[in-house]
Specification:
Length: 280
């Protein structure tokens, strides 16, 4: 009987831990920016630098990735965090993504967290326009200070020339791009037309050397292409494809054109996205 009770106890604990892992691995419904097309009316929008880090959602108790996984922070890092939600970027400096990823996603926090800051760009599910939402976070940390927290500065955009100048300045410093946001809007989740990301991209070519099978909704279709660049670098290209293209992927040894936003330290294209087959 005692053995049965102990077994039942272990099963209950296992079931609880399994259910918690499901909760933490569930994708979060957060704000997502659309790509700036160039013809939107952006005068009066707020603009800020788009930081190249790991997104961190504070649910009032713990810090999670955009996919809902728990971020194991040191206790001192989240000291004085508020009981309400925050959305921000875990970041160190420009062109430092590999370090940020390594530091932030470790199961056991290390001293690397000393170089990480939490940069707030939104206060989810708070009433009021964008300025009032940011003001809520500002007021909290004025009375509950935390040296690791920063509120991302916002600049009022006066038009396309202002945006282009700001983007050029950010890119000259090695930055990734700019985020535009209509400050008059209330908070909404998902992809919304009043939040835009602005980045200059480059085009590149590569040879298809493999086809990786898709998962989930892309089951029985192509998930990504294994691409080899002219310099020998190999990587997976998995975005930018239509369902029709996934059902009929480019053939092995065909040459494809894709866009990207610079390179990682390992010379792999950042945020690659398929454009077209190379025309002969």
């Amino acid at each position: 009987m005692k053995v049965f009770r102990n077994l039942l106890k272990y099963l209950i604990v296992f079931a609880f831990l399994f259910s918690q892992s499901l909760v933490f691995s569930k994708d979060l419904t957060l704000q997502k920016a659309l790509v700036y097309q160039g013809d939107e009316k952006i005068t009066g929008f707020y603009m800020s630098e788009k930081l190249d880090g790991i997104r961190g959602y504070w649910d009032g108790e713990k810090l999670l990735t955009r996919s809902g996984k728990l971020i194991n922070t040191p206790k001192w890092f989240i000291e004085n965090f508020p009981p309400f939600e925050l959305d921000g970027e875990l970041w160190s400096k420009r062109n430092d993504f590999e370090f940020i990823q390594s530091a932030v996603l470790k199961k056991i926090p290390t001293d690397s967290w000393e170089k990480i800051t939490y940069n707030i760009f939104e206060v989810p599910n708070t009433k009021g326009d964008f300025s009032k939402r940011l003001e809520k976070a500002n007021k909290w940390f004025e009375t509950n200070p935390n040296k690791n927290v920063k509120i991302i500065p916002q600049i009022i955009c006066t038009g396309k020339d202002h945006l282009n100048g700001f983007l050029k300045k950010i890119e000259s410093k090695g930055g990734e791009g700019v985020i535009l946001k209509d400050p008059s809007q209330n908070y909404h989740n998902g992809k919304i037309p009043y939040i835009l990301k602005v980045k200059n991209f480059s085009k590149m070519e590569g040879i298809v050397i493999g086809i990786n099978k898709g998962k989930g909704k892309y089951k029985n279709m192509m998930g990504s292409l294994k691409i080899k660049l002219d310099n020998g670098i190999i990587f997976n290209l998995g975005s930018g494809f239509s369902d029709l293209e996934r059902a009929n992927p480019p053939k092995i040894n065909s040459r494809v054109v894709f866009k990207h936003y610079g390179f990682t330290k390992n010379k792999i294209p950042k945020f690659p996205s398929f454009l077209d087959l190379k025309k002969e």
